[in-house]
Every structure is written in C-alpha cells, then in structure tokens.
Write a structure and sequence with these properties.
The protein is α/β, with parallel strands linked by helices and 447 residues long. Among the domains are: 62-227, Ribonuclease Inhibitor (Leucine-rich repeat, LRR (right-handed beta-alpha superhelix)); 307-447, Leucine-rich repeat, LRR (right-handed beta-alpha superhelix) (Alpha-Beta Horseshoe). The protein has helices spanning 2-10, 24-36, 46-80, 144-148, 218-221, 425-440, and strands spanning 90-92, 113-115, 123-124, 136-138, 150-151, 159-161, 182-184, 205-207, 229-231, 252-254, 275-277, 298-300, 321-323, 344-346, 367-369, 390-392, 413-415, 444-446.
C-alpha cells in the first residue's frame, strides 16, 4: 500500500519550473527506479534538486557581483574626495565598466598598484608614464577586450597580472611594457609557454598556474634563462618537465597540484634553487640529486606518497622550513640533526612511531607538528629544543608527558588532544600540572 501511494505522489503533475532537469533519459531512470522500488523505499528527484541548487548558486553570484559593483562605485566616489593624494599607493577600479583610465588617477603621484580588472579598457596611454612609481598593473577578466587593447610604450610597469582572460597566446602589443619583471598568466587557456615572452629582457618571474592543457617545451623555455621564479601549479602535468632544468638561474620552482609521479635525478642542475614545491602530486621517492640543492631554504612535499628520507638530507644545511606532511613517512634518519638552521618541521599525517634521537640537535626549531601519527611516547629529545613555540602531538597514542616539558619557556601553542593518556592518579596529576602551568604562562593549550 505504501509503495502505491508513493508512486501516485511521484506521478502527480509537477510545476513546469521543476521539469527543466527531466530529460528523456532522466525520465527513463526515474521509471526504472519506480519499477524496482520496494515497499518503504524513498525515491529522490536528485536531478531536479541539483538544477535548483545550481540556479540558487547562479542567483547568489549575480547578487554578489551587483553588491561588488555598488561597493566599487562608492569607493570611486570616495576616491574623488581624497585630499592627501600623495599618501595613496594602491587603487582598485575593478568592475566599474570603464572603457578608459579616469583622468583622476593621474593626480595620485605615488601610485604603486592599479587594478583595472573586469572593465573594458581600450588603451594604456602614454600618460601612464607620468606615474613614475606605478609598478603593478592588474587586468584580470577583460576577456576579448584585452586582445584589442592599444598600448603605448610603458617605461615603469614591472608587474603585470592577466588572469581569467581566456588567452591562448599573449597579445603582441604587450611587448611595449619594456620594464616588465613579473607576469602572471594564470587561469587562461595557454597550451604552451608564449614565444613572445622572450621580448622581456628583464623578466624574472613567470606564473602560469591553472592552465589545464599547458605543455612545457624546451624550445619555448630556452630564451627565458634569466627568470628566477617559475610557477606552474595546477596545470594537469603528468611528468616533471625536464626542460625546466635548463633554467639554471631559478631560485623558486612551484609545480603543486599536478599529477607528477617522480622528480628527475638531475634536478641537481638547479644549483641556485631556494624554494621548491611539488605539493599535492604523486611522488613516491626523493632522488639523490634533490639532496644536492644546497641553497634550498624551504621545500613543500605535502600530499605525496613519500615513505622515507635519505641520510643525504644532511646536505641541505640551509633548509629552514620542511613540509613533509600527508605522506606515508615511517622513518626519519638521524642525519636530520645536521639541519642546524631548520626552524619549522611539519611531519603530521604520516606513519611515524618514533623520532630519531638526533632531533635534539635542531636548536633553531620553533614549530614541530607531529599530529596524526603512530607515536606511543612523547619524544623526550624535543624537551631540549628551547626555542620551540608551536608543538602539535594531537591524535597519536601517547600515554604520558615528560615533566621536563615545562623547560620549554618559549612555548606559545601546544595541541595534545586525541591521545591515550594513562588514567592512573599520578599520571593524571602530572598531566594536569603541566597543562595548568602552561596555561598560566599564556600558552594556547588544546586538550
């Protein structure tokens, strides 16, 4: 009886606004569900609900954009009333439906950054050169208008941001920005690195994040040997582009959120590299060449499949920050103690059941995250690291805390929830005493 009533309800006429999502295939699927339903089953018209959800998101976005435009108009009106214009260094004129740069802007002589995103700017006039401090220009979300923009020779602009313009090549007229040092081409439609980037003789930073079909060729990189920073995050790369290794002046290399499975042995060619990120890829091992990057100060290896570190890590003596969380690391070599400049060590969400005794040699360490591992004991050597400000040992199997933990007089944050502390009277007193003492010192304790 319950099934027949349910079917009757579902077959009642539905208001037309809810029928938009019901294609013939969806109707067949619904009929099949009805035929195979058992008494008491609930059938959800998920496609209709999804249509309504998308409609709500679209309406919310329209409201948000309208609010932003209203806010920007108000901001522009306030800008006209500014008396001390020499104190203004950044101006945001986005979403004002502008076709040209307002004359008002030229009265802000110390202007350093100008945001003209989401407009319909037709030209960058020669007059912009009168703003001798203007270094950063943002032209996001101009779409087709950007390809037609007229540009006079610009002497001062050093940073150009062109995100969300659906570009597959860099418009030729941008070569008139002669002093360009940084260019951000993220969230476009580039399939290869633009050839005309070689026109920028002073280019130091190139960002191509979120170009989903990007291919890196040696031909397009060989003229960019001067650049020191390269960012190719979230570009759906399945391999480490070895052509990058010809950029021997690189100090920063970001390849985060791709599908890269390995790091090449000859990464050691990047002898000047100071920052390296391969966050959120599928790397399972670190080659010996990586440990030859002796100028490395920070590396982000988060969210990969790395299980061990080589004893050769001792060569990275300039390393200050090591991100190794969300891997499957089960062993840290004693040689990590040689990293006497290390200030931050992030090892959470791994498979560590112990830390090496030489961890005590990391005298500059200020942050240590060990949460979500398999530790059954608090590493006593940690109590010798007097500069520690931030410790997280939450969600392990630790049963007791050492009393000399209170020797950490610089501690500001201490997370220890989710452990299996002993329930004996003495252990409870010790734990409560440590927590109470830290709280009196102003330490943020989460237990």
């Amino acid at each position: 009886m319950r099934l027949s009533v349910l079917i009757f309800i579902l077959l009642l006429p539905i208001p037309s606004r809810r029928l938009i999502a019901q294609t013939p295939d969806q109707k067949k699927l619904l009929q099949k569900k009805l035929e195979t339903a058992r008494p008491g089953d609930t059938i959800i018209l998920s496609t209709i609900q999804e249509q309504e959800r998308r409609k709500e998101i679209k309406e919310r976005k329209i409201r948000s954009e309208a609010q932003h435009q209203a806010s920007q108009k108000l901001y522009f009106e306030k800008l006209k009333k500014v008396i001390n214009r020499d104190s203004v260094i950044r101006i945001n004129l986005s979403s004002l439906n502008l076709s040209e740069i307002p004359t008002l802007i030229y009265s802000f002589k110390n202007l350093n950054s100008l945001n003209l995103s989401s407009n319909k700017i037709r030209s960058l006039p020669k007059r912009l050169n009168t703003l001798v401090n203007l270094k950063k220009l943002i032209l996001n979300n101009h779409q087709e208008n950007l390809k037609k923009i007229k540009i006079k020779k610009q002497r001062h602009i050093a940073i150009l941001i062109l995100q969300k313009n659906n570009l597959d090549q860099l418009p030729r007229q941008f070569k008139r920005l002669k002093s360009l040092k940084e260019i951000d081409l993220g969230k476009n439609a580039f399939k290869q690195i633009p050839k005309n980037l070689r026109k920028y003789k002073h280019l130091e930073l190139l960002s191509l994040n979120h170009n989903q079909e990007l291919s890196i060729s040696s031909q397009n990189l060989k003229k960019l040997v001067r650049i020191s920073s390269l960012r190719i995050n979230n570009c759906n790369l399945f391999y480490f582009p070895e052509s990058i290794l010809q950029l021997t002046n690189l100090k920063e290399l970001q390849l985060a959120e791709n599908n890269i499975v390995s790091i090449p042995q000859n990464i050691s060619k990047l002898k000047k590299l100071e920052f390296f990120s391969i966050y959120k890829n599928r790397v399972s091992s670190i080659p010996d060449g990586f440990y030859e990057l002796q100028k490395l100060t920070q590396t982000d290896l988060y969210y990969n499949n790395i299980s061990v570190l080589s004893p050769k890590i001792k060569n990275l003596t300039n390393l200050k920050v090591l991100y190794l969380s969300h891997n499957i690391v089960y062993d840290i070599p004693n040689e990590i103690g040689a990293l006497n400049k290390l200030e931050e060590l992030y090892l959470h969400n791994n498979l560590l059941s112990y830390l090496p005794t030489q961890i005590k040699e990391l005298k500059q360490l200020q942050a240590l995250h060990l949460n979500n591992n398999l530790l059954s004991q608090f590493p006593k050597e940690v109590t010798l690291l007097s500069l520690l400000k931030d410790i997280d040992i939450s969600n392990n199997e630790i049963r007791e805390l050492p009393k000399n933990l209170l020797n950490l007089n610089n501690l500001e944050i201490f997370y220890l929830q989710g452990n299996s502390f002993n329930q004996t009277t003495e252990s409870d007193r010790n734990l409560e005493s440590i927590i109470e003492t830290f709280k009196k010192r102003g330490v943020n304790v989460n237990y």
